[in-house]
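User: Hi! I'm working on a homework problem where we have to compare a predicted structure to a textbook description. Could you give me the structure for the chain below?
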Amino acid sequence: MAGLCRSHYTEYLVRLVNAAGLDPSPLYTPAELAAAAERHLRGGKPPQLPGETQGDYEQRLRDALAREAPVRPRPPPPKPPLV
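Assistant: Happy to help. Predicted structure tokens:
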């Protein structure tokens, strides 16, 4: 962890993920995936279809998130001016 406390190491990892535009949805638990779908999809989280397995439903949510709310690389924050 390069001498960082847990919260600063997490912040560092999030910065790397954002800079690279990596999609974290494959790592989400079902609850996190549902929350992300509710937060980012137009119309909220779609209902599970009759006969659809939990795994198929989760993949459908991941696909919808990738389509409607894709993760794009973010530019690094501006550096403070040299004084």
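For your comparison, note the following. The two ends are 31 Å apart (CA to CA). DSSP finds three helices and no strands in the chain. Good luck with the assignment!
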